[in-house]
Amino acid sequence: MSCHPERSEGTTLRRFAVLSVTLGAVLGGSALSAQPSRAARLTERAIQTRDIVYFLRQPETHAFDLYHDFTQTREGADKYVNVVRAGSRVSNPSAFILDTGEKLTTRLLKGDQVTRAGLDIGEPVKPETEVVVIPFPAVAKGHSLRLRIAETYTDSARYRVEGDELIWDRSFGRPTNAVVLPDGWYLTHSAVPATVSLTADGRVRLDFVNPRLDEISVLIVARRRTGR
Q1: DSSP 8-state symbol, 193
Q2: How many other CB atoms are there within 10 angstroms of residue 7's CB atom?
Q3: Vertex 139, ends 134 and 140: CA angle to 5°?
Q4: What is residue 228's predicted lDDT score, i.e. its pLDDT?
Q5: 129 SS3 class
Q6: CA-based torsion, 152, 156, 157, 160: positive or negative
Q7: Which residues, 6+ apart, have CB-to-CB distance to 123 below 8 Å?
Q8: Is 113 exposed, middle or buried (0-12, 13-18, 19+ CB in 10 A)?
Q9: 151 close to 69: Cβ distance less than 8 angstroms
Q10: CA–CA gap between residue 202 and residue 186 (Å, rounded)
């Protein structure tokens, strides 16, 4: 039996072309149409309008202060709802509009208070659920508001002392996150790469960038400085 490589190659190419057209039709139709719209994909998370800075108190307290900034551009939006992470306790919430300096009121709701307020928090409301609600003037069409929100949290499971070491073990979902160690502590380990610097008052600061759409599990270990 004779063999014709040219004919065999041509047949293969024609079959590949038909297959390519078929796949293109599928991808161009149902598969691609199932993809989220461009507007849906370009959310606040994608354009990185959110950032947060943690200021750790002495680890024996399990407490840390923080502020987080974000820009609201959605027309008609008139409140910010922050769901407190399970296992944490929140206190001293405050907020203001960075554009104008206007101070905003804050409300701390728990359990069925969240349900009665008609808030959609994106998850089931449990008796232990806590949310911080911050009303602000409704965003007008074509305008935006830049907000800064400050809170104090206590979380003995994720921020603690083990022996003579400070342990910070917390996941970050925002694009930019920073942690400032308490006065008198120096960094020994970080499970996630970070930019390390010193603040004006000599505290160690770690800046993390999360380009992914999921969370990064940040584990920081530090020791107390001696000879001070």
Answers
A1: -
A2: 9
A3: 165
A4: 60
A5: coil
A6: positive
A7: 83
A8: middle
A9: no
A10: 10
Predicted pLDDT of residue 6: 41
With beta carbons less than 8 A apart as the criterion, state whether 74 and 147 touch: no
For the chain, the domains span 1-35, 48-62+156-228, 65-152
DSSP output for 131-174: EEEEE-PPPPTT--EEEEEEEEEE-TTTEEEETTEEEEEEEE-S
Distance CA 199, CA 103 (A): 27
Alpha-carbon dihedral 69, 75, 78, 81, rounded to 10 degrees = -50
148 Cβ partners below 8 Å, 6+ apart? 67, 68, 69, 95, 96, 98
Residue whose entry in the numeric block shows the structure tokens 């022996």 = 163
* pLDDT tens digit sequence for 165-204: 999 999 998 889 999 999 999 999 999 999 999 999 999 9
Contact 96, 111 (CB under 8 A): no
pLDDT in tens, 92-101: 999 999 999 9
- How far out from the chain centre does Cα 156 lie? 21
